[in-house]
Amino acid sequence: MRERLVVTSVASLGLAASLLLAACDHWPGFGGEGGTSGVGGTTRLEDTSGRLGSSCGSCQGGLTCVTGFPNGVCSKGCQSSSDCQGGLCVLSGYDLLCLPRCLSDTSCRPGYRCASADEGSVCAPGGSSTGGDPGVDAGTD
Predict the structure, then answer these.
(1) pTM, rounded to two decimals
(2) Residues 136, 124: contact at Cβ < 8 Å?
(3) Where are the beta strands (DSSP E) in the chain?
Protein backbone atom coordinates (compact mmCIF):
# COMPACT_ATOMS: atom_id res chain seq x y z
CA MET A 1 0.00 0.00 0.00
CA ARG A 2 2.81 2.42 0.81
CA GLU A 3 4.54 1.89 -2.59
CA ARG A 4 1.29 2.75 -4.35
CA LEU A 5 1.06 6.07 -2.49
CA VAL A 6 4.63 6.96 -3.45
CA VAL A 7 3.95 6.24 -7.14
CA THR A 8 0.78 8.33 -7.00
CA SER A 9 2.67 11.19 -5.35
CA VAL A 10 5.44 11.09 -7.97
CA ALA A 11 2.85 11.06 -10.77
CA SER A 12 1.06 14.01 -9.16
CA LEU A 13 4.33 15.95 -8.94
CA GLY A 14 5.06 15.25 -12.62
CA LEU A 15 1.60 16.49 -13.62
CA ALA A 16 1.96 19.61 -11.47
CA ALA A 17 5.39 20.37 -12.98
CA SER A 18 4.01 19.95 -16.52
CA LEU A 19 1.13 22.31 -15.79
CA LEU A 20 3.47 24.93 -14.31
CA LEU A 21 5.80 24.78 -17.31
CA ALA A 22 2.89 25.09 -19.73
CA ALA A 23 1.54 28.08 -17.79
CA CYS A 24 4.90 29.87 -18.11
CA ASP A 25 4.83 29.92 -21.90
CA HIS A 26 4.07 33.37 -23.34
CA TRP A 27 2.46 32.37 -26.63
CA PRO A 28 -1.04 30.92 -26.90
CA GLY A 29 -1.16 27.73 -28.93
CA PHE A 30 2.20 26.44 -27.69
CA GLY A 31 2.22 22.67 -27.99
CA GLY A 32 -0.92 22.56 -30.13
CA GLU A 33 -1.41 21.13 -33.59
CA GLY A 34 -0.23 22.84 -36.76
CA GLY A 35 2.18 25.76 -36.80
CA THR A 36 5.93 25.39 -36.99
CA SER A 37 7.80 22.49 -35.46
CA GLY A 38 9.84 23.60 -32.48
CA VAL A 39 12.61 22.03 -30.40
CA GLY A 40 11.87 18.58 -29.01
CA GLY A 41 8.73 18.01 -31.10
CA THR A 42 6.81 20.97 -29.69
CA THR A 43 4.70 23.14 -31.96
CA ARG A 44 4.63 26.93 -32.17
CA LEU A 45 1.53 28.59 -33.58
CA GLU A 46 1.21 32.15 -34.82
CA ASP A 47 -0.07 34.43 -32.03
CA THR A 48 -2.91 36.71 -33.17
CA SER A 49 -4.09 37.76 -29.70
CA GLY A 50 -3.16 41.45 -30.12
CA ARG A 51 -0.85 41.32 -27.07
CA LEU A 52 2.75 42.57 -26.98
CA GLY A 53 4.76 40.60 -29.55
CA SER A 54 1.81 39.05 -31.38
CA SER A 55 1.42 39.33 -35.14
CA CYS A 56 -0.48 42.32 -36.45
CA GLY A 57 -4.22 42.03 -36.68
CA SER A 58 -5.86 44.02 -33.96
CA CYS A 59 -3.18 45.19 -31.55
CA GLN A 60 -4.58 45.93 -28.08
CA GLY A 61 -3.75 48.10 -25.07
CA GLY A 62 -2.07 51.04 -26.80
CA LEU A 63 0.05 48.79 -29.03
CA THR A 64 0.41 49.42 -32.76
CA CYS A 65 1.45 47.28 -35.71
CA VAL A 66 5.14 47.62 -36.46
CA THR A 67 5.98 46.39 -39.96
CA GLY A 68 9.39 45.14 -41.02
CA PHE A 69 9.11 42.13 -38.69
CA PRO A 70 7.82 38.70 -39.85
CA ASN A 71 3.99 39.11 -40.06
CA GLY A 72 4.41 42.45 -38.26
CA VAL A 73 4.53 42.75 -34.49
CA CYS A 74 2.27 44.45 -31.95
CA SER A 75 4.55 46.82 -30.06
CA LYS A 76 5.00 50.43 -29.02
CA GLY A 77 7.79 52.93 -28.61
CA CYS A 78 9.53 53.07 -25.24
CA GLN A 79 12.17 54.87 -23.24
CA SER A 80 12.76 52.06 -20.73
CA SER A 81 11.53 48.54 -20.03
CA SER A 82 9.07 49.89 -17.45
CA ASP A 83 7.06 51.16 -20.46
CA CYS A 84 6.72 47.63 -21.87
CA GLN A 85 3.95 45.74 -20.02
CA GLY A 86 6.36 43.01 -18.85
CA GLY A 87 8.49 43.07 -22.02
CA LEU A 88 11.85 44.73 -22.61
CA CYS A 89 12.70 48.02 -24.32
CA VAL A 90 15.20 47.25 -27.09
CA LEU A 91 16.78 49.14 -29.97
CA SER A 92 15.53 47.96 -33.36
CA GLY A 93 17.13 49.89 -36.19
CA TYR A 94 16.83 53.50 -35.00
CA ASP A 95 13.79 53.00 -32.76
CA LEU A 96 13.35 51.82 -29.18
CA LEU A 97 10.53 49.25 -29.16
CA CYS A 98 8.91 46.95 -26.62
CA LEU A 99 9.37 43.24 -27.36
CA PRO A 100 8.22 40.27 -25.25
CA ARG A 101 10.58 38.46 -22.89
CA CYS A 102 11.38 34.79 -23.51
CA LEU A 103 13.20 31.84 -21.98
CA SER A 104 13.83 29.81 -25.15
CA ASP A 105 13.07 29.78 -28.88
CA THR A 106 9.89 27.78 -28.25
CA SER A 107 8.55 30.73 -26.23
CA CYS A 108 8.54 32.82 -29.43
CA ARG A 109 6.33 32.94 -32.51
CA PRO A 110 7.37 31.17 -35.71
CA GLY A 111 10.03 33.28 -37.47
CA TYR A 112 11.35 34.61 -34.14
CA ARG A 113 14.02 33.39 -31.75
CA CYS A 114 14.92 34.10 -28.15
CA ALA A 115 17.81 36.60 -28.34
CA SER A 116 19.90 37.96 -25.47
CA ALA A 117 19.57 41.61 -24.49
CA ASP A 118 21.16 43.50 -21.57
CA GLU A 119 18.17 43.03 -19.25
CA GLY A 120 17.19 39.50 -20.29
CA SER A 121 16.05 37.86 -23.53
CA VAL A 122 13.43 38.92 -26.08
CA CYS A 123 11.66 37.35 -29.04
CA ALA A 124 13.45 38.86 -32.04
CA PRO A 125 13.25 38.16 -35.79
CA GLY A 126 15.24 35.09 -36.82
CA GLY A 127 14.34 31.45 -37.22
CA SER A 128 16.96 29.82 -34.99
CA SER A 129 19.26 30.63 -32.12
CA THR A 130 22.43 29.83 -34.07
CA GLY A 131 24.34 32.71 -35.62
CA GLY A 132 23.10 35.91 -37.19
CA ASP A 133 22.08 39.24 -35.77
CA PRO A 134 18.60 39.25 -34.21
CA GLY A 135 18.14 42.86 -35.34
CA VAL A 136 17.75 44.24 -31.82
CA ASP A 137 20.05 45.68 -29.20
CA ALA A 138 19.25 46.27 -25.54
CA GLY A 139 17.62 49.61 -24.74
CA THR A 140 18.48 51.75 -21.77
CA ASP A 141 16.60 51.68 -18.50
Answers:
(1) 0.61
(2) yes
(3) 36-37, 43-44, 64-66, 73-75, 88-92, 95-99, 112-117, 120-125, 137-138
Question: Which amino acid, residue 107?
Answer: S
The count of C-alpha atoms lying within 13 angstroms of the C-alpha of 84, restricted to the half-sphere facing its C-beta, is 24
Residues 6+ apart with CB under 8 A from 109: 27, 44, 46, 47, 53, 54, 55, 70, 71, 123
Hey, which residues does 123 pair with through a beta bridge? 114
Q: What whole-number distance in Å separates Cα of residue 105 and Cα of residue 69?
A: 16
What are the start-end ranges of the H helices in the chain?
2-24
Q: Among candidates 116, 111, 9, 117, which has minimal Cα distance to 55?
A: 111
pLDDT in tens, the chain (141 residues): 444 433 333 333 333 333 323 333 333 333 333 344 444 445 556 777 889 999 998 899 899 999 989 989 999 999 999 999 899 999 988 899 999 999 999 999 999 999 999 899 999 998 644 333 445 554 444
Question: For residues 126 and 100, what is the distance between their CA atoms, to the nearest angstrom?
Answer: 14
